Amino acid sequence: MKGVEYLMNVLVTGGAGFIGSNFVFYMLNKYPDYRIVCLDLLTYAGNLSTLEPVMANPNFRFVKGDITDRELVTNLFKEERFNYVVNFAAESHVDRSIEDPGVFLKTNILGTQVLMDASRTYGVKRFHQVSTDEVYGDLPLDKTDLFFTEETPIHTSSPYSASKAAADLLVQAYNRTFNLPITISRCSNNYGPYQFPEKLIPLMISRALKDDSLPVYGKGQNVRDWLYVEDHCTAIDLILHRGKDGEVYNIGGHNERTNLEVVKTILKELDKPASLITYVKDRAGHDMRYAIDPSKTKRELGWEPTTLFDDGIKQTIKWYLDNRSWWENIINGDYQKYYTRMYGSREGATT
Ligand code: NAD
Ligand code: TYD
């Protein structure tokens, strides 16, 4: 970075994953005088080809590395002197956390600690933790007037959500004990370009396009509150620049759908038959309903989501149709092994 003066230097961890990469594109586009450094381990979920369009951008630097690697992280902070840190890096898939919780605790909790220690040492302006509504547990299906607010108690169901909640508590502890300037955002389920096809929407799109069965857990009645990924990026941008130190902000756009409604919408858009739907054994500890009350973020920061689910899902399906090589390259040998391991014994068993 010698010789060039940037207004702000921003570390984006996990920027080769789904939301992180969308955030990198968003920030480089919106702030031409910012430097964006992406630190990513390139796990199965990280994909360098996603970042290909910005690799040659002089305002961008990619560093391959583990957020739990204290020496690497400390050296990077020493070299770059970041103003802002936005921590997306995480193990993010609930089903994988049920299979193997250990790496979730390591990356999601200890990785956050390492990043915060370096942030303290090198005095960042703001450490932003990208969290999830899953830390609030779930809501009953029959009480549709209930929503998660920032005051809803933490109450987790999966090793994934427990690891994210532990990280949130640690972030708040660093704020109180060490005065590390922090914010936390808790967002609902995201969808959009570059989402790894192990998550509901890209999994169903990619399988429907190949006329493969669509594995719906249980009866498909669980409800998720869907947000188009760019709306998540605009909220984080506002929180980073204008959010109050120490605060938690909920992000969501009131787009609740049952899983079955989502899958049927995808089938309709792709003109594929409902007979592709296969009901499989339910996820252990499966959360029933997530629903965010985003009024604090709207009121305090003026944030508004701009994409309704009915439009966003069409855009997303179009993206997966237009970018087949991106996801077809991902659905390689390892992915096939994962699919067989995860779903092989579930099909035909609906309880
Ligand atoms: P993702 O799985 O697509 O991407 C995670 C990225 O982190 C990958 O690029 C991976 O290589 C990287 N990574 C993993 N372990 C790492 C490590 N030890 N060091 C450095 N990099 C590492 O995840 P996503 O869906 O983009 O989620 C990003 C963040 O947003 C996560 O913190 C997640 O908890 C949170 N979140 C996700 C959603 C959602 O719907 N996807 C909703 C709310 C919050
Ligand atoms: P997912 O995309 O894994 O996100 P999360 O569990 O973090 O909300 O799953 C979204 C919903 O879709 C969840 O209720 C589980 C369900 N689901 C299926 O029914 N079938 C699948 O193959 C997957 C991956 C998820």
TrEMBL record:
Entry keyword set:
Lyase, Membrane, NAD, Transmembrane, Transmembrane helix
Q: What's the protein called, per UniProt?
A: dTDP-glucose 4,6-dehydratase
What PANTHER family does this protein's entry cite?
Answer: DTDP-D-GLUCOSE 4,6-DEHYDRATASE-RELATED
Annotated TM spans? 6-28
Per its UniProt entry, what is the enzyme's top EC class, as one word? Answer: lyase
Which GO-annotated molecular functions does the record name?
dTDP-glucose 4,6-dehydratase activity
Q: Choose any GO biological process term that the UniProt entry carries and state it.
A: nucleotide-sugar metabolic process
Q: Which InterPro entries match?
A: dTDP_Gluc_deHydtase, NAD(P)-bd_dom, NAD(P)-bd_dom_sf
Under Pfam families, the record lists: GDP_Man_Dehyd
Q: Where is the NAD(P)-binding domain?
A: 11-316
